[in-house]
Amino acid sequence: QLQLVESGGGLVQPGGSLRLSCAASSFILDYYTIGWFRQVPGKEREGVSCISSRGDSTNYADSAKGRFTISRDNAKSTVYLQMNSLKPEDTAVYYCAAHYGSTWCAVSEVGMDYWGKGTLVTVSS
Predict the structure, then answer these.
(1) How sure is the predictor about 27, in pLDDT bands with cuts at 50, 70 and 90?
(2) pLDDT category, 1, cuts 50, 70, 90?
(3) How far is CA 71 from CA 7, 40, 53, 89, in A?
(4) CA 74 from centroid of its chain's CA atoms
(5) pLDDT, tens digit (0-9, with 9 covering 90-100), for 36-63
(6) Beta-carbon contacts of residue 41 (< 8 Å; ≥ 6 apart)
(7) What is the DSSP string of 27-45?
């Protein structure tokens, strides 16, 4: 019954920044591990980052380390992905997904039972 809605996508120039949001239709988002994924046409969907239910454990794909930061505000039932130093290869549809439980997380689709519809990020000059 958990519903997720992504927002914050848009057009940004290389080197710019963007913050994505993943909002849940439930006040119990604090029970869920959240992951961010992205996909471009013709390619497999790849993991970007994840954050544990309490927010005390995070992981990043190598392509995101040092540039992206995941965080959450359980009081607002929202998870964020701050993206800095964006590159054209970051262009993709970004999805958030949720898995019930876990005090740790891994950048993997395994166990992700709930998915948003995605938000498009375009990095171009």
Answers:
(1) low
(2) confident
(3) 15, 24, 11, 23
(4) 15
(5) 999 998 999 999 999 999 899 999 999 9
(6) none
(7) TTGGGEEEEEEEE-TTS--
- Sequence-separated (6 or more) residues with CB below 8 Å from residue 99: 32, 33, 34, 35, 111, 112, 113, 114
Give the whole-angstrom CA distance, residue 70 versus residue 54. 13
Q: How far is CA 33 from the centre of its chain?
A: 11
- Rg from Cα positions in the chain: 13
- Token pair of 121, please? 């990020």
Contact 89, 31 (CB under 8 A): no
DSSP readout, the chain?
---EEEE--EEE-TT--EEEEEEESSTTGGGEEEEEEEE-TTS--EEEEEE-TTSS-EEE-TTTTTTEEEEEEGGGTEEEEEE-S--GGG-EEEEEEEEE--SS--S-STT--EE---EEEEE--
